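Structure, all two chains, one model.
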Amino acid sequence: MASDNQDVWIIMPVFDEEKVVAGVVEHVLATFTHVVCVDDGSTDASAQEILGTGAHLVRHPINMGQGAALQTGLRYALDRPGAQFFVTFDADGQHRVEDVAAMLEVVRAGAADVVLGSRFLGQRSETMPWLKRAVLRTVVALSPTARRLKLTDAHNGLRVFNRAAAGGLRITQNGMAHASEIAAVLARSPWRVTECPVTVLYTDYSRSKGQSLINGINILFEVSLARRGKR
Amino acid sequence: MKIIIQGLLLAAVGGIMIMFVRGQHGVRMQASKRLAFFAFLVLNAYAVIRPDDTSTVAHWFGIGRGVDLLLYVLIVTFVFVVINFYLRLREGEQRVTELARAVALRDAELLNRDRGLL
């Protein structure tokens, strides 16, 4: 009954990924019918590449950041009739479609409202550079929200939301601090959050596109100066 | 004596940080910011006219010269202004985001309908 995945929307923020985006989209489309790519004001041919696939395209007129792109994609997908499950998926090809299927099972079964991918559950993180692993572990240890939710990985781009949780999410951190923001919102929310082990494929490409560790300082700054109010 | 002014200035910096990070930005806050700015201007004018008086005040706090006191106050004010601007910018960015998102979603409906996806 749950096999055709018509009620699933894959949300993919795209920024300057012309080399890989079409391949990643085609690969996802083989399993999931509905993919929406949010082109965050790319300066390369990413948008043309997406137009050549069967994915929905939303184009930000200006570059606003990955957090903003995720929120736009969520809004677009929430407006589609029949959409029940929402998956955020990075466009650089570092996530595996098999992991999405496993995470969806958990949400479909009603065991959780939100499932976050974790690189640290299970034994599958050998592909991660050791320095990055150490830093990500530290981020989790320092983050009170991650600890409250007992998260092992605060900055994984692979997440599955059911409709209630996706509709309640308001990402206001446009930049990379959105991952911490999502964790903070989930910690305050009534939704049940769990983690699933996922494998992240650290190819040379995703390595070159990935967040540099030094950007963690920017994230800490933005999060600490963010308004703690409800807005 | 010196420890007092150091404590006061550090407390001011800390207070400003806390105020901005968790404070409400209501009418009252806006008004008090403007009053503080006005008071700062008046004090500056006074310090220009009677520079020796600032030294007297500085001595109360155990600071050597009035100029040093002014420098300390200026630093605190500068931090205040920088944070204020940072938050203003963020607010502006938030509005631009909402606007751009509305435009993007409207265009996307048309585009994806033309592509036969909707």
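Residues 112 and 118 of chain B are 6 Å apart (CA to CA).
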